[in-house]
Amino acid sequence: xxxxxxxxxxxxxxxxxxxxxxxxxxxxxxxxxxxxxxxxxxxxxxxxxxxxxxxxxxxxxxxxxxxxxxxxxxxxxxxxxxxxxxxxxxxxxxxxxxxxxxxxxxxxxxxxxxxxxxxxxxxxxxxxxxxxxxxxxxxxxxxxxxxxxxxxxxxxxxxxxxxxxxxxxxxxxxxxxxxxxxxxxxxxxxxxxxxxx
Length: 197
What we know:
Largest sheet: 4 strands, mixed
Order of helices and strands: EHHEHHHHHHHEEH
Oligomer: single chain
Shape: globular
Number of helices: 10
């Protein structure tokens, strides 16, 4: 029986850039399948009055330097500070929800983060999303229409409700059973726990 680790992601979270470039290989090496679950971390952070970088320039500067250091340590591409915040309509996350339903979420999320972190383009903007989708072999008009459909909006909201109920408050979060591991720096811990339990 293959062990499974839930991977709650939000395109718009800076540290998630690291996790989406590391998690699949590490989990695969440990014989663990990742289940990619887009959700609205922004919604939960607003509800919990937990917006760590809003109005905090010193903490924001530290975060970017920390992401850069961790990227260098783990061999994750980093091309300098990208635009932030991004995707205020959470369109890229709804596309990720479509992709999760159809089985191409990992490729899309990595491509969206590459557009954001390496090309410095907001992956939620239609003009930036379209070429990402085309490179992945999808018809942008069709995927974007699907991402705006009521069933996908409901699925995205339901995943956010699930995250809320599980005590998840940010991205990336890894869930093994009922054990919650938050942050890219807890990825190895999550994999170890999942392997042992």
